[in-house]
Specification:
Elements lengths: L2 H7 L1 H4 L5 H10 L1 E5 L5 H11 L3 E5 L10
Parallel strand pairs: 1-2
Length: 69
Amino acid sequence: MEKLDRKERYARQLIIPEIGEAGQERLRQAKVLIVGAGGLGSPIALYLCGAGVGILGIIDDDIVNISNL
């Protein structure tokens, strides 16, 4: 993603003094592993992805059954 595109995409985060450009760059370089993709893991993954986390891994050892789809 081009730097200009990133600035446009994360414009709202960049204006927050606690984040700014330096914080957003740290998020882009971050690696996060989510253990469990259930009730908490699924929405957390969406928020982290939307925030701009660079590498996001998700691990879940649940067996998919027709009852939990």
